[in-house]
Design a protein that fits this description.
There is one protein chain. 42% of the residues lie in helices and 16% in strands. Strand 3, helix 2 and strand 4 form a beta-alpha-beta unit. It is built from 14 helices and 14 strands. It folds into 2 domains: 117 residues, 3-Layer(aba) Sandwich (Rossmann fold), CATH 3.40.50; 136 residues, Nitrogenase molybdenum iron protein domain (Rossmann fold, 3-Layer(aba) Sandwich), CATH 3.40.50.1980. With 319 residues, it is an alpha/beta fold. The strands form 5 sheets. It has a 4-stranded parallel sheet. A 4-stranded parallel sheet has the order 12-9-13-14, with helices on both faces. The chain is elongated, with a radius of gyration of 22 Å.
């Protein structure tokens, strides 16, 4: 009897219990080979870590890198198909509390599927780096996580050294323009701006405060910053100059309008690219450059390239 029970226990896959970022206890396989991600930031991080082979599926909105579009999709982040997720037989589902619903995690847990939820909008940039390292550890790749986080931290430290004596640029970060929605002080975007030597002119404890344009005119920010609007900075500027009240802003009059890549609104490795881009745009004198809008995702691109090389050189992954 004892021998039979020992044999049965040995046949069960090894499990471990972890606590996720929202305080849930998650029982998951000790070895994770198949994952499903429910947010674009999580998908991007998986690729940056060189773990694309473990990604069994993602959402309709996962578009970075381009290869993520070819993975099986499970629907929209806020309303994914439970049936589609189950059909992919994941060892682990990764969710983000900023975009995914608690109901989804609850339903999957009841079905016996492990769901680890990462922290969301109120993180700091360093919290995000910690999350990247935790994701790597969950997927059995702590070394890749440590290396990626180390590179990103070095870049942030180098940027801080350049900007620590510079006065902060005062910025209006536009999340949505009708109605006009900006960022609160306790968001990862606000913290990212501080790393870039900028701070919001709007002081609010709300995560996504709404503000009227007349108040913005009173505050007169040094720069207007957009993200993920699909337009160039020149197009954004021309549009603002055609609008009543907006054209009364000094920043619009002198052309201080910046359009960041959508990495600026994702808690993922590419956020550091967006921070560097913003720093160059609001402090061009520090970098010996003219102020111009530019997009740089080189760290993310290099991470994806390194990940591809790692997979090619890994015999088990090649099979």
């Amino acid at each position: 009897m004892v021998r039979r029970r020992a044999s049965q226990d040995a046949a069960k896959p090894a499990r471990r219990v972890v606590t996720d970022d929202v305080g849930r206890r998650v029982t998951m396989p000790a070895e994770v080979n198949r994952i499903v991600t429910l947010a674009p930031s999580l998908t991007e991080t998986v690729y940056a870590l060189g773990l694309a082979e473990k990604l069994a599926g993602d959402t309709n909105e996962c578009d970075t890198p381009a290869a993520a579009k070819s993975k099986p999709h499970v629907g929209e982040p806020q309303n994914p198909s439970l049936e589609a997720i189950i059909a992919l037989h994941p060892d682990l589902v990764l969710a983000a509390d900023s975009i995914n619903r608690v109901d989804t995690a609850d339903a999957l847990a009841r079905l016996g599927i492990a769901v680890y939820t990462m922290g969301g909008d109120t993180q700091t940039v360093l919290n995000i780096l910690d999350s990247i390292a935790r994701m790597a550890e969950l997927m059995g790749a702590p070394q890749q996580g440590a290396e990626l986080v180390g590179r990103l931290r070095q870049r942030l430290d180098a940027l801080h050294a350049k900007l620590e004596d510079r006065p902060m640029a005062h910025v209006l970060f536009v999340v949505w323009d009708d109605p006009l929605i900006t960022i609160g002080q306790n968001t990862f975007i606000s913290d990212a701006m501080r790393w870039a030597g900028a701070e919001s002119v709007v002081l609010s404890k709300q995560i996504w405060p709404q503000i009227n344009i007349e108040e913005v005119v009173r505050l007169q920010p040094d720069y207007i910053v957009f993200a993920s609007h699909g337009q160039s900075a020149a197009t954004e500027l021309a549009d603002l100059r055609s609008r009543p009240v907006w054209r009364d802003l000094d920043a619009v009059e002198i052309g201080h309008v910046i359009n960041l890549s959508d990495e600026a609104i994702r808690p993922s490795p590419g956020l550091v690219d967006a921070i560097e881009q913003l720093a160059r745009d609001v402090h061009p004198e520090v970098f010996g450059e003219k102020s111009e809008n530019r997009t740089s995702n080189r760290e993310t691109e290099l991470a994806f390239e390194r990940g591809a090389n790692f997979m090619q050189g890994c015999d088990p992954c090649a099979r």
